[in-house]
Amino acid sequence: MSKVNSLARQIVQDLVPYASARSTMSGGAVWLNANENALAPAYQLAGTFNRYPSCQPKALINAYATYAGITAEQVLVSRGADEGIELLIRSFCEPKTDSITICPPTYGMYAISAESNQTAVSKVLLLNSEQLDLAGIFATHPKLVFICSPNNPTGDLIPREQITAVLEHFSGKALVVVDEAYIEFAPEASVVPLLSRYPHLVVLRTLSKAFGLAGLRCGFTLASPDVINALKKMIAPYPIAEPVAQIAAQALSASGITQMQQSVATINQLRNDFIAIAQQLPGVKRVWPSNANYVLLQVSDAADCVSALINADILIRNQSSQLGLSQVVRVSIGSPQEMQRLTKAMQQYFSEQKPDTKNDNKRESA
Ligand SMILES: *Cc1c(COP(=O)(O)O)cnc(C)c1O
After folding, report:
1. CA–CA separation, 108 vs 114, rounded Å?
2. 282 near 357, Cβ under 8 Å?
3. Residue 218 Cα, ligand 1 centroid: separation in angstroms?
4. What is the pTM for the complete model shown?
5. Which residues carry this modification: N6-(pyridoxal phosphate)lysine (predicted)?
6. Residue pLDDT, tens place only, 251-281
7. Domain range summary for the chain, segments of one domain joined by +
C-alpha cells in the first residue's frame, strides 16, 4: 500500500467501494442482473463539441417537464438519478448530525450516498416486503425519507395512501423522496400529481430503465422550485455532457416516448409470462408480483442458482444480502430470446433439484 492512501480522509479509508451489478459481474452472454432494457433503440450525434454545455440544457428540461406534466422550474437534470440522490443528501443533510430514513429491502445507493456524506441511516423494514411500516417511519427523525415505488428489488408499488400519510407526517420537518426509476412500467401509480400539493415532495426519475439508456447517465429530480434551486447550488457547473443532452432530447421526443411505451408493453408481457412459468418451477418457493422490469424469486440456495446460471452464460443477481430477503435472486426481464434461454436454463436447473424443495408459499402475479 502506498503512502498516498494514508493521506485520504478517514471516512474514505474506511469506505468499502460500491459493488454494482456491472462491476461484480461482467462477461456472460445474457445480462439479466442490472434491470437494463434489452430492447434499446440506437441514437445519432450531430455537430461539434468545442463549447462547454449548459448546466441545465433548456430544451432537455422543457422536454422532461412536458413529458412529466409539470413546469421547467420543477425539473433538475443530473448524471443519472444516482446523482440526484447524492445531491439531495449533500444539500439537506448536515454531516454527522442529520439522518435519512430508508425502507429495506430497497435500492442500495441511498445508504451509500448517506455514508459518504457522514449521514446516519435509519432502516425501517417494509412489512411483508411490500408495505411501509408507518409507525416505524414516524418514530424516526430524518431530513430525508426515501420511498422507492415500484420498489427495487421487490417490484411492489407503495400504496398512495401510505405515501400521502408520510407526506402529511413530515410536513415542515423533512423531504419525502419517492424514487420512480421504474414508474414507466406502471405509469398510473406516479405521485407527480401530488407535487403541487406538497412542497416537500421530491420525485426521482431516470432514462436508464424503461428508456433503455443506462449507458447515457441521465436522470431527473422533480420537486418544488425551492428544492430544485437548493440542488442547483450543489451541482457541478457542467454535469450534463453535450452528447448526453442531445441523445436525451431524442429519447424524450414524441417518437422516442412512443418507442419507450412499446418496449414497456413488450417487457410487461414478457415479465408476466416469466412469472407464470416461474410459479410452476419446482424449487422456486416464492415469486413476488412485479410492477417493473424485474422479478424476485426465492429459491433453496440463491448462490448456487446464480452460479448454475453463470455456467449457462446468464447473469442474474443474488439479493440475499438485503435485509429481509434470504435466498432470493432478482431476474431482470431481457429480450424474448434472452427470456427463452433463461427459462430453459432455469427449468434445467430446478429439475435437477431435490424434490423436498417443492413450492409451498406461491403468490399471485401482479
Ligand atoms: C437504477 C436505479 C436508479 C439509478 O438510476 P440512474 O439514473 O441510472 O442513476 C435509481 N433508483 C433506483 C430504484 C434504481 O433501480
Report:
1. 10
2. yes
3. 10
4. 0.93
5. 209
6. 999 999 999 999 999 999 999 999 999 999 9
7. 7-37+256-348, 58-253
Pocket test for ligand 1, best of 64, 85, 109, 296 (most atoms within 8 A of CB): 109
Of the candidates 275, 66, 294, 264, the one whose C-alpha atom is nearest the C-alpha of residue 184 is 264
Domain 58-253 is found in CATH 3.40.640.10: yes
Residue to probe by mutation, ligand 1, list 83, 107, 296, most atoms within 8 Å of CB: 107
Is ligand 1 within 6 A of the CB of residue 206? Answer: yes
Decide: residue 356, CB within 10 A, 0-12 exposed, 13-18 middle, 19+ buried: exposed
Ligand 1 centroid – CA 361 distance (Å): 30
Q: Of 105, 67, 108, 61, which is closest to residue 85 (Cα–Cα)?
A: 108
Q: What kind of fold does domain 7-37+256-348 have according to CATH? A: Aspartate Aminotransferase, domain 1 (3.90.1150)
Spatial distance between the Cα atoms of 63 and 9, rounded to a whole number of angstroms: 41
Q: Which long-range contacts (CB under 8 A, 24 or more apart) does 339-344 make?
A: 339/270, 339/273, 339/274, 341/30, 341/312, 341/314, 342/30, 342/32, 342/274, 342/309, 342/314, 342/316, 343/274, 343/277
| Burial class of 85 by CB neighbour count within 10 A (0 to 12, 13 to 18, 19+) | buried
